[in-house]
Amino acid sequence: MPMSGGLTLLALGLFAFAMALESAVSLRFLHRLRRKHPKQWAHAAQPPLWQDRTLFSARETMLYLKDYAFVSSQDASGIRYCERHRAAMLAAYWITAVAGVAFLVSVATNGW
User: Fold this and answer.
1) pTM confidence score
2) How far is residue 83's CA from residue 2's CA, in Å, rounded to a whole number?
3) For the chain, which residues score pLDDT lower than 70?
């Protein structure tokens, strides 16, 4: 296998790992938000069947956390929960985005 193909394969592996990590972090956050902080869940306007729309709602969830929109909920425990998990959620989201771009750049420059 040529080195350039190896770089693309490595980038693909990193992207897949980042997606799995981001999905796990996000699902854990959303599951606990819904179960332990229903007022905050409603304030975040998460769809009732969020399991089927996790990828679709990932951007909205990140914007909700990034912009501190959760603070206006008046739910003190929900706000604390969001504050505690904000950094991990944003990091996982952006690591996945960067890994995806790195993979696409590798495919474009090195081929498959």
Assistant:
1) 0.81
2) 46
3) 1-4, 46-56
